[in-house]
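Predict the holo structure. Ligand: s-citryldethia Coenzyme A.
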Amino acid sequence: MMMIMTSNEFRDGLAGVPAAKSRVSHVDGEKGILEYRGIRIEELAEKSSFIETAYLLIWGKLPTQEELEDFETEIRYHRRIKYHIRDMMKCFPGTGHPMDALQTSAAALGLFYSRRALDNPNYIRAAVVRLLAKIPTMVAAFHMIRKGNDPIQPNDDLNYAANFLYMLTERRPDPLAAQIFDVCLTLHAEHTMNASTFSARVTASTLTDPYAVIASAVGTLAGPLHGGANEEVLNMLEEIGSVENVRPYVERCLANKQKIMGFGHRVYKVKDPRATILQDLAEQLFAKMGHDEYYDVAVELENVVEEYIGREKGIYPNVDFYSGLLYRKLGIPADLFTPIFAIARVAGWLAHWKEQLTVNKIYRPTQIYVGDHNLAYIPMAERVVDRDPGTVSA
Ligand code: SDX
């Protein structure tokens, strides 16, 4: 049921507050249903490809064969990045997080494609194609550069998912691995009004350029409560280490009021349908490429969390819980998990950018001021020392 707010009503985290009217996707959190443009995620995971799904999200309809081929060809053509971007990345500290590198590089695209024409469909199309095409190349390029290697050029013979895996290793990926990775991208492509999409829409509403829209969304996705949780899940499974350690770990987390990564969701009160599909994909991948001991830890964790808080509070695995185990089996380093989420989510962010432009009103909410009024200006000599201002080493 949609809630209408009175002007002074306030909800932490805008929980339950509609921030836009949208046709892009829909979640039923009670039933565990996710639809992109009205089509169930299970059906897209089985029958579609990431690029076809991106087209569906952004243009609101499934493409014809010719439309899909044109879109794929345009994206293939625009995969390369300018040497300026590569050189800029060479100045980034190799120890920096790839999400920070991606946010900076995405914003830098605005320097190269600066002519803004938001009412021109050709400009919109070019921005969509460039961002979908170049974001994976930028993620892979930073990964190679930080290892001291030259970036691997995109391979025009490979599709979107296979090409990304290729750019990490210079080896053609196993077909099943590439197919599963493509489904992972489809599953992560869009998810209604989450934090990064809200951030993208707020930025879009100022009529700035699409590269700034995507850069702000990437920065928002990076946090551990949002897309950054997939990396944290793997760290957590490694810390737990064995099936026997799961129960004491959960008890410790609950006693310390510490969140268990990869669990819980603002909207879902049942298991996230994407987690169910990802778990199934992980099992397929392990059957072909060998079992992963941490999968047993993950399954036990799911059972124990359900027993302790799941049923009572509706805390079940979310999209970030099983994805990391899958990417690990594909040989992908843990700090690329969230950039991979971003590669996929660019499709959803672009769909919302386009939608925002058609109905635009700049976002400008109000606040409830809870600070002081009419205080006197205190002379320097009378001010007291702040007990915990923090320190910065020289
Ligand atoms: C994504 O929104 C989207 O659509 C996002 C996303 C997408 O596709 O874009 O689905 C992707 O961001 C997935 C979420 C990844 N984050 C994590 O896995 C981090 C761990 N999970 C949480 O911190 C939490 O569940 C959130 C951030 C996902 C949701 O937070 P809410 O809605 O603000 O809920 P809350 O933190 O206020 O928790 C409500 C209750 C609390 O208990 P009480 O104080 O009411 O007794 O549930 C408990 C919480 O303590 N709880 C958890 C928990 N998550 C919620 N307890 C233990 N472990 C958890 N993970």
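The CA atoms of residues 282 and 328 lie 10 Å apart. The longest helix spans residues 121-146.
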